[in-house]
Amino acid sequence: MHLLHKCILQEIAFPKSIIHVKDICIALALAVVLTLASGITGFAFQTMDHWCHNAKFQDLFQNNWPLRFPANRPVMAYYFGYYLVPAAISRLAGDISPVAILIWTSLGIALGLLWICTSLDRKWWAALLVLCVGDFPRIFKGVASHGSIQLYKYEEIGVEHWSNIENLFWAPNQFIPSLMLGGMLFHMIRHRLDYALLCLPTALALWWAAFPALIAGLVTALLLVFQWIRWGITVRRLFQQVLLPSLAAVPVLLLFQSHPHAPQNGLIWEFRGDMDNLLREYLVNTVTDTSLFVFAYLISRRAGLPTIPAVPFWTLICITLLFPLIRVGKVNDMLLRGMMPVLILIGCCLLYPLASQPLPKTLTILRGNTNCIIIMLALVLPAAVGIGRFYRAARLNRITALWGSPNAEFEAIPYDAYPSLYETLRQRWSQQEADQYLGKPDSFYEKYIAPPPAKDP
């Protein structure tokens, strides 16, 4: 992040005053609220994935690094970037430190929120709505279910994407880099800067979240190609701005390559025998949301509002349409997590036209354009899903548990519920889930980067 900031200051005299103290305070306050509500500290309701998050903190706290499990096996092949700093502080403190987890998580979320907010002309209402983009189909399905209409049957390997605010409650470790990468890339798109500046942050994000970083890298690579076609590129610039920064990704890519088996992958219909149900699921989720995105973009252009260039937007739309058709991971993790930075970008693209205008002008535009009102309502409605999640966190947490109300029962997931992360995954999920973290004894990473300690004679 420091290198990126330095490059921007050197190349385009980026104004240092763009981030105000007021915005920093708002970002920090919102970040603390988001962190507490997410469940990551054990303060409020926790989804089942927190069994895994807590086990990772515990394993890093009590075992030598890099982690090897089961005992005496190769290095665990997983992205642990988010967990390392709180785990290191916990080791110094002698116990798992929820305060360290709270501070570390809040700082990451605050930084991501600042990238989004400053790119949207410091409009916090727009930045918060961006986090909810992607949940419109859930509203659509909720309305249908109240009318006893089943649009499709839910399957484990689905083709629906989740908003970033929904992913926060399941994968806060991937929420943070998605905010940062999405906010930075939209800043580059809006100000027509050199996309090569994103190579280093994207490579570093692989240590925190593989799928969001890979998809953000794909978007950046596509936009770089379009940029080079227009501006041209020299071998020297290619080496300095792209290849050299990308070397930061090599060690973690070698770590990912040390898996005994590649994650399950292929075309989605190869794993689903219910083609009619699959088609309906795709139409209800992907096509409905994508249609909303396209209509909102076109209406903004027709209304004469400032919009981003067409090439980045249509690139994002194509990715949104195509990615549900490819399965990567046990439950299509590439779609669930990889779409996170894409939805941040799309949300910024759609809300920027209104956020870039003074509030009185925005209200005038909405009053005089029925289509704009409809689209704005469609972008605001998904926030109801996020509000529901925060209501749940406000109702089920450590404070309400003290009241003793039967409707406010809450018990935080313990960090040491199981002997290891491996046992957590094996006992709460499956042997397959546990084995996907294992490494190979003959991998390059195991032999040359993190060889096992020598055995005593």
Automatic annotation (TrEMBL):
The chain crosses the membrane at residues 24-45, 96-117, 168-186, 198-226, 238-256, 311-328, 335-353, 373-391. Keywords: Membrane, Transmembrane, Transmembrane helix. The keyword Membrane applies. The keyword Transmembrane applies. It comes from the Bacteria. Coiled coil: none annotated. This is Transmembrane protein. It comes from Dyadobacter fermentans.
